[in-house]
């Protein structure tokens, strides 16, 4: 019985070490391969407007590139509040081509803000959260 417990403990220890050896990128690459996630690179995913005036809309464009082998389609873009609007292409983006997501923020109240823009791709499991932030004076 003691020998069985020792073997079981050794197996758990080896499994734990193997799982800890995965890095975040290894897991992402493995999931992307296993589930055929879209392959997109972003120039940036956070934009800080700094100080902006109240009641005057400001915009930023987040650019991305389709690094996959298939055309990429942005299914929709969802903003975290009514004060942020988005614009994006409804046409498929060919492999190797770039596109953009435009976010426009119209500040109604003074103070610091952080807003999320969720980009949903045609592959329902693939999405990207973009962030805009700043301070309204």
Kindly list the characteristics that best describe this protein:
137 residues, Immunoglobulin-like, 2 domains, four-stranded mixed beta sheet, 8 strands, elongated
Draw up the topology in text.
Layout: H1 2-20, H2 24-35, E1 40-42, E2 46-52, E3 58-66, E4 74-79, E5 84-88, E6 98-105, E7 111-121, E8 127-136
Parallel strand pairs: 2-8
Antiparallel strand pairs: 1-3, 3-6, 4-7, 5-6, 7-8
Description:
This protein has two helices and eight strands, in the order H-H-E-E-E-E-E-E-E-E. The chain has helices spanning 2-20, 24-35, and strands spanning 40-42, 46-52, 58-66, 74-79, 84-88, 98-105, 111-121, 127-136. The protein has two domains: 2-34; 38-136, Immunoglobulins (Immunoglobulin-like). It is an alpha+beta fold. Residues 4-36 have low confidence and may be disordered. The termini are far apart.
Q: So what's the overall shape?
A: elongated
**Poorly predicted runs:** 4-36
What fraction strand?
A: 35-45%
Report the order of strands and helices: HHEEEEEEEE
Radius of gyration: 21 Å
**Number of distinct beta strands:** 8
Structural class: alpha+beta
CATH topology of the largest domain: Immunoglobulin-like
Strand order within the widest sheet? 1-3-6-5
Give the mean pLDDT.
80
Can I get a quick summary?
The chain has 137 residues and is α+β, with helices and mostly antiparallel strands.
């Amino acid at each position: 019985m003691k020998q069985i417990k020792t073997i079981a403990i050794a197996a758990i220890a080896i499994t734990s070490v193997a799982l800890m050896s995965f890095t975040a990128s290894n897991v992402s690459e493995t999931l992307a391969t296993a589930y055929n996630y879209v392959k997109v690179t972003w120039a940036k995913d956070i934009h800080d407007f700094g100080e902006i005036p109240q009641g005057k809309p400001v915009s930023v464009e987040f650019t991305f590139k389709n690094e996959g082998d298939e055309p990429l389609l942005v299914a929709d873009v969802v903003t975290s509040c009514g004060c942020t609007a988005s614009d994006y292409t409804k046409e498929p983006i060919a492999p190797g081509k770039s596109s953009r997501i435009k976010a426009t923020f119209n500040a109604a109240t003074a103070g610091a803000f952080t807003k999320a823009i969720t980009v949903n791709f045609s592959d329902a499991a693939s999405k990207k959260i973009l962030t805009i932030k700043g301070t309204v004076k």
